[in-house]
Amino acid sequence: RRRTDGVTTVGDMGTPIFSLPKEECWSEFEDVLLRMADSGALGVRVKTCVPLDLWAELADFVARRPETHHPGLRLFWGTVKEFYDGSLGSETALMTDPYLGSEGNVGLRIHEDREALASRIGAAKRAGLQVAMHAIGDLAVDETISLLSGLESGGGGGGGGGDRIEHAQHTSGLQALDRMASLGAHAVVNPLHIADDVGAMLEKLGEERAGVGRSYAFRSMVEAGVAVSFGSDWPLVAPLDPLASVVAATSGRKHVPPERLTRQEAIAAVTWRAAEALNVSDFVGRLDRGMRADFVVVDADLLDPGAEKPVVLKTFLDGECVYVQE
To answer: At residue 155, does pLDDT exceed 60?
Structure first.
């Protein structure tokens, strides 16, 4: 069904270790996704993650294979995922200053033993794995940048390189964005979350922290040289709809309009920038000789700054038409 939205590749974040036993988290990869890839049952490309606690199992898996992808190029691996903090709505996103009216609450730092966290991340990165860190609050983003800056960058295979900061929703300012750019990390941001968060940002953070350069700071990130790509958090928060994300980050953005992106920048964030963040840019993300010929045909010019979300007329995967609008 996702082909109706023009989706040809997805980033699967895996199941958090606090939701399932460790063995079941690994089984989702090896006994479900890998078997689907073996049988040709994956209708889209999937770049999967496993929890950081499974870094050793993933490193061993990678060491026994010459590539970080399935021969059919529908399944890719090589990334571990971890959480640094919580969310804005629950006031568990880790902030430098307290939430307004909260009597000193600054959110949640999930890993108080930061040396132990750094040790596990360092081991994963030395094994050539990419790290994707959930960080929403401004202090969580700052501390994630500091943590990753002190460790050798992971790989993950397939092109792109660099670790990922998932959400990077709130930042402490332009200096943090300069540090993020210097790190070479990918900011995987969520344009479709903005409309739902505007009220909470103003209520819980105030105008300054909800403003330019501080919240959903897409334009500021790009100008600082940060590699920005779009995610959805589907199916938990927003729909899996990259074209809607393009509109939400550009002409459709009502919250802090100076942080809008151009259409070209937003399209890059759901194509080649996203492929780089997923470490699959050797295969997808561009229309070029030798690439896998994944593309969509739409009914309008998305580069037109005033265009609304177009309708997907056709979706192609590996050069084959896999969806036609009826």
So the answer is: no
